[in-house]
Amino acid sequence: MRPKNDTLLRALLRQPTEYTPVWLMRQAGRYLPEYRATRARAGSFLALAKSPALATEVTLQPLERYPLDAAILFSDILTVPDAMGLGLFFAEGEGPRFERPLRTEADVARLSVPDMASALGYVMDAVREIRRALANRVPLIGFSGSPFTLACYMVEGGGSDDFRLIKTMLYRRPDLLHRILAVNSAAVADYLNAQIEAGAQAVMIFDTWGGALADGAYQAFSLAYIRDVLSRVKRQHEGERIPTIVFTKGGGLWLEQIADSGCDAIGLDWTVNLGAARARIGDRCALQGNLDPMVLFADDAGIRREVEHALTSFGRPSSGSGHVFNLGHGISQHTPPEAVMTLVEAVHDISRRLRA
Prior knowledge:
This protein is of the alpha/beta class. The chain has helices spanning 7-12, 33-42, 45-49, 52-65, 79-86, 105-110, 116-119, 121-134, 147-156, 164-172, 174-198, 217-232, 255-259, 274-281, 300-314, 337-355, and strands at residues 71-72, 88-91, 95-98, 140-145, 202-207, 236-237, 240-241, 244-248, 265-267, 286-291, 323-327. The chain has a domain at 95-264: TIM Barrel, CATH 3.20.20.
């Protein structure tokens, strides 16, 4: 069943909308005091993410505060490699780490696609519970990390400043990296399809580290596997079209190639001009983005000014184009919560005025 507010879905499918819909990457997160309280109650991030009830609670928190046009599943991109047996944990002050990173040929040979129902059933339970709680108010977005972004964490063992280990593998043993990416691609497609079957109404692939690759390597080791995922993902479920979004942070050089990957919308970071991106893409895909998250530290007038600049840059939507307003990356944990209300109201008000 279509949500009462289906503006996001229409924009992603390049259908007419009365205003520009808005949601925010990491909209359920540490900038909200209610999230911090729930996180403290859970005891750890993983306990929070693995509890369908608590994941539902934090997914809905920003929707209780702000008139957002979508909910996004509260989870983590590293649930998939965790389900593959790599031993995800969160070190204090260090972020996510893996106990058993992929460092040898034997490590790579053992890698396999996890069973979604047994290893990641808690995610699908959360999707179902969130859909029930939303009661068709707004759409629910499901997501996964891209095959390459997941591989970065799986090989490096955590975050990295220079991606030395995975790039060493890429240039010395590309066969091993292609094996990891092939397994990841199958797993990501299964994961997104399971979310769709559980109730996700749009899905997004976060290619957070694709922009760290050289031209040529990006196409071979990231985009090719995103394309493979998109070829396997369900585009229809229970009579409704399921839009797909691809976001490569730092991917502005490759917009035309991303547009040809089979996605419905391209996420843009803040380095890309919306109008220029629209001119390059034409009517092939909708665009999502792309305000600098640091704009939310401006005063109200400054936030409204930057919102109007972004909306004006995109231009008046036509029947063949769509725009979903978002940040160019995840919201900062230090963001004042009241700034988000200013942003959301400005997007709705200014985009309605620009359509008048």
